[in-house]
Amino acid sequence: MRVLIIEDEAKTAAYLRQGLSENGFTAEVCTNGEDGLHQALTVENDVIILDVMLPGRDGWSILEALRKAGKPIPILFLTARDTVYDKVKGLELGADDYLVKPFDFAELLARVRMILRRGPTRQAEVLRIGDLQLDLPRRKATRAGARLELTAKEFSLLELLVRRRGEPLSRTLIAEQVWDVNFDSDSNVLEVAIRRLRSKVDDPFATKLIHTVRGVGYVLEERAE
Ligand code: CA
């Protein structure tokens, strides 16, 4: 397995190269963006470890150029800034995963192996039921081709319902999975969230997907009403 490391910090690059070599990878290092992109476009690699802050051409622009060139190679990006903005930006540009510096080598190795197990061609994971489509890597939902503007929580709630379609899910289970808490029994947070979600996912459409299961919770399935 060949790994291309695009990283300008000599110490980090050497540490990565050594660790990966010891674990059976062939690792090559590029220390600036231009060389990195050139190498990524011309040499076959199995995975790229891409630093974001690079002299010349930054990691974002390399990522964009590779995806525009139709290169499906898996990319793990390294960011020094632990901000949601950076993570979302990297994933939206088509990276497969990210690590925030400083990181443990063991974690990097685990991420690299996980990315490789997913296979050489990056497959966007998309869930579909009827005309509803959830693009999981991009956290985008569409129905009948139209984009649904969902909040992060609404997307998670919808994702859970779609993953377990046809299965009545209890309020407790939904609260635990989506909010990671148990609501007080008199809390109506879930009801409010479901109402909002329905207004976007179901109200404009003839076929309803989200249904109340009396005394239990909710189920997602196609039903004409
Ligand atoms: Ca850097």
Q: Would you write up a description of this structure?
A:
This protein is of the alpha/beta class and 225 residues long. The chain folds into 2 domains: 117 residues, Response regulator (Rossmann fold); 95 residues, Winged helix-like DNA-binding domain superfamily/Winged helix DNA-binding domain (Arc Repressor Mutant, subunit A), CATH 1.10.10.10. Helix content is 40%, strand content 25%. The chain contains 8 helices and 12 strands. The strands form 3 sheets. The chain has a 5-stranded parallel sheet, with helices on both faces. Strands 6-7-8-9 form a 4-stranded antiparallel sheet, covered by helices on one side. A 3-stranded antiparallel sheet has the order 10-12-11. Helix 2 packs parallel to helix 3, helix 6 crosses helix 7 and helix 6 crosses helix 8. The N and C termini lie far apart (54 Å). The model has no long low-confidence stretch (mean pLDDT 89). The site of calcium ion has 5 residues, from loops.
Helix share of residues? 25-40%
Strand content: 15-25%
Any idea how many domains? Answer: 2
What is the CA–CA distance across the termini?
Answer: 54 Å
The top-level CATH class of the largest domain is Alpha Beta
**If you average the pLDDT, what whole number results?**
89
- Side-by-side strand order of the widest sheet: 2-1-3-4-5
Question: Which molecules are bound in this entry?
Answer: calcium ion
Level-2 CATH architecture of the largest domain: 3-Layer(aba) Sandwich
Per the CATH scheme, the topology name of the largest domain is Rossmann fold
Query: What is the number of helices?
Result: 8
Sum up the overall morphology in one term: elongated
Q: Which blocks of ≥5 consecutive residues have pLDDT under 50? A: none
Question: Radius of gyration over alpha carbons?
Answer: 21 Å
Structural class by secondary-structure content: alpha/beta
